[in-house]
Design a protein that fits this description.
mainly alpha; two-stranded antiparallel ribbon; 7 helices; globular
Length: about 160
């Protein structure tokens, strides 16, 4: 296969420029975004980008796997796998709302990252269908990461309470 060695070796660094633009644009116009893990308000000042499936496992920066969190929450999660039972619905809902926001603003072409999973018209897709498609993609990857020894499940506990 052509380029097999590149596919087997992790990129040297992350490239979050596209994800930063995507989420900063969304948060700037939707100021009530909260963290799916902690419920904390996310602002442009405390914004950090979390790889729902850890970057050290997926080794990519595709938008379908990235969500905004406060910096301290992202640090607490680190390379842990989030509890799907606790966080998947919030993760998928946040992704769906952001995509719908950009589509309604006239961005007819979604970032390429989403085209692989969502071959249907996202303009007309219900939240439930979006969640089903995303769950079918994430669950087997989550299970494989768990089988490889990634710590799970991450459930945020506020130590200040």
């Amino acid at each position: 296969m052509i380029g097999l060695s590149e596919k087997l070796q992790k990129p040297a660094e992350r490239d979050l420029k596209s994800a930063n633009r995507f989420w900063k644009g969304y948060i700037a116009e939707n100021p009530n975004v909260t963290c799916i893990y902690s419920g904390q308000h996310i602002t442009l000042q405390n914004l950090s980008l979390d790889h729902f499936l850890p970057w050290s496992y997926v080794a990519h920066d595709q938008l379908w796997n990235i969500i905004p969190t406060p910096k301290n929450i992202n640090s607490a999660k680190n390379d842990q796998l989030p509890s799907l039972e606790t966080y998947f619905e919030g993760f998928a809902t946040l992704q769906y709302r952001a995509i719908q926001f950009y589509l309604k603003k006239g961005n007819q072409q979604l970032p390429e990252d989403y085209n692989y999973f969502f071959r249907e018209n996202l303009h007309e897709m219900s939240l439930e269908t979006f969640q089903d498609v995303l769950r079918k993609q994430i669950t087997p990857q989550w299970q494989t990461a768990q089988n490889l020894g990634f710590p799970y499940p991450f459930i945020y506990v506020n130590v200040d309470e």
